Amino acid sequence: MSLLRSSSMHPGWPMPAGPLRVRAGVVRLRPVRLRDGAVWSRTRLADRAHLEPWEPATGMDWETRHAITSWPSVCSGLRSEARKGRMLPYVIEVDGQFSGQLTIGNVTHGALRSAWIGYWVASSITGGGVATAALALGLDHCFGPVMLHRVEATVRPENAASRAVLTKAGFREEGLLRRYLEVDGAWRDHKLVAITVEELNGSAASALVRHGHANWT
Ligand code: ACO
């Protein structure tokens, strides 16, 4: 009964997405869990130099923010937003292993039917098509079960890898948001990119398979 109520309030949650095979392995999206704490903390503490230049500041230092003891409140905050229909917080799994996160946020229904999407992938597995596959699965989920019309993302102009991922998924640039977000100690410009369901013209995952970037498992 509660599942029925939450899924009608929040279409597409807590449904997983995938699988899709890329060079690094088999990629899936599944909801964040309380027991992700140890691997989340270990990975994000080790990957500080890889992640910090691109992630919004929280006012907390990196070590405290990513201590294993921080995860229960981070995770329950995300899941509470998910229950309210405002977020879909996913873990990116590669061959069943925690390898990053993909989050769909500010989900709005009605006449807007829009959300933002963001992601990170552990440095040990970058360059293998994981973010590209996760973003394609996330987009298909947004335009399918979540029934959105538009998905947007913001990215620093200097973030060449993430811009490449967004371009491969079909996002187009809409403008430059000046001093948009506090990242890595300063207010940073971000490019606003977006895609609507009409522009996708089918499935993002199918397009990756068609262009030889991924395979169905
Ligand atoms: N210049 C140009 N292209 C680059 C560069 C570079 N310096 N570095 C990598 N790339 C390209 C790769 O060639 C690859 O394209 P290809 O597959 O066509 O060759 C693409 O960028 C990366 O594709 P994937 O392998 O699918 O991506 P990956 O799994 O390596 O993850 C990501 C990329 C998410 C940016 C990862 O490096 C990461 O987590 N970085 C730190 C956090 C971050 O930047 N998150 C994104 C913030 S913006 C947002 O969320 C919308």
Characterise the protein shown here:
- The protein is an alpha+beta fold.
- Helices cover 34% and strands 32% of the residues.
- It is built from nine helices and eight strands.
- Helix 6 crosses helix 7.
- The termini are far apart.
- The N terminus is likely disordered.
- Bound molecules: acetyl coenzyme *A.
- The site of acetyl coenzyme *A has 22 residues, from helix 3, strand 5, helix 6, strand 6 and helix 7.
Output the structural class.
Answer: alpha+beta
The strand line-up of the biggest sheet is 1-2-3-4-5-6-8-7
Proportion of helical residues: 25-40%
How much of the residues is beta strand, in percent? 25-35%
Averaged pLDDT, please? Answer: 95
Summarize the main sheet.
8 strands, mixed
What distance lies between the first and last C-alpha atoms, to the nearest angstrom? 33 Å
Poorly predicted regions are: 1-7
From the spread of the alpha carbons, the general shape counts as globular
